[in-house]
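Subject: for your reference before the review

Hello V.,

The reviewers asked for a structural picture of the protein, and I figured it would be easier to keep everything in one thread rather than splitting it across files. Below is the amino acid sequence we used in the manuscript, unchanged from the supplementary table.
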Amino acid sequence: MSEIITVGLDLAKNVFQAYGADASGLAVLRKKLRRDRVVAFFGKLPPCVVAMEACGGSHFWGCAIGKLGHEVRLIPPAYVKPFVKPQKNDAADAEAICEAAMRPTMRFVPVKSEETQGAAMVFRIRERLIRQRTQAINALRGHLGEFGQIVPQGAANAARLIAIVEDPESGLPADAMAPLQVLVPALAHLETEIGKLDAEIARRAKENEVARRLMTIPGIGPLIATAIAVLAPPPETFRKARDFAAWLGLTPRQYSTGGKQRLGATTRMGERSLRRLLIIGANSVIIKRHVHAAARPGTWLGGIGSCAQTSIRLCPFWERS
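And here is what came back from the structure prediction:
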C-alpha cells in the first residue's frame, strides 16, 4: 500500500468515516471508525495531514489527533461542498474533505485549544441568557399590552414591566396576576446572571494586554475587546485589516462575471457574535459622535453625517480601522 499523505475524516456522533490518499491523490484507505477507536487508529498511522470540516467537535478532535504527531487542518464546510460527488454519504464526504485539503489554495481554520474554547464559553452563555431575557421581556410586554399597559421596548424598561406586575393597584385582573408573576423572578434571575458574566468579562479585559490595547479604539469596551482577543483568529492569520473585515462578513458578496463587477449584501461570514458586537460598538460611536475625537468635524467619520446611523454603512469604518 502506498504511503498515506492526507486523510479526510468525516466527523459524526458515533461512527466516523476516514478516507486516505497518497501523494498522487489516489485512494489508499477507506475505513469506518467507532468513536472510541479514532485516537487508537490515528496513533498507529505515520505522521500525515488529517483534514476535517470545522464544526462543534472538530477542535476537540484536532487537539487529540494533533498530539499524536499529525498535522490537523480544519476546512469550512462551504469550501468542502463543491468537492462532494453525487450520492452523498459519509464515505463521499470524507473523500471530499481529503480532496479539498490537498488543494494548494485552500483556506483552513486554526485549531483552538481547550483553554481558548473555555475562555470563549462566557460569550456563548451570555448570548443565550440575553436571548432568554429578551423573550421574557417581550412576553411581559405582550401580555400587559392586552390589558392596556403599554411600555416602550428595550431591556432598560424591564423594571417598569416588573413594577406594573407587582403593583396591586395596576388594574390587572386577578386571574392574570399569578401567571405574570411567574416571569418576574425568572427575569430578575437572568439580570443577575448576566451581570455576573459582565463582571467576569471586565476582569478578564483588565488582565489581558491585547484587550487593554483594543479598548483604546473608539467604540470598543471590555466586552468587545475580550471577544476579539478570544474569538478572533491570531492576527498573523490576516495580511491586512480588510482581510479581517472579510472574515467578519462586513464586506459585500461579489456576483461578478463577464468583466462586470456586481456587489451584493454583506457576506455575514466569520464569527457571528463578534460581528454583532462590533456593529453595536460602531453604532455607539456614530450616535454619540459629538463626544468622540475620532468623529469630530473634518474626520472621515464626522463627514458621514446623519445618514451613517444605518448599519449598512459600517463596513468602511471597520475596514479602515
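For the response letter, the relevant points are probably these. Residues 306-321 have pLDDT under 50 and may be disordered. Residues 6-101 form a domain with the Nucleotidyltransferase; domain 5 fold (CATH 3.30.420.40).

Happy to draft the paragraph if you're swamped.

O.
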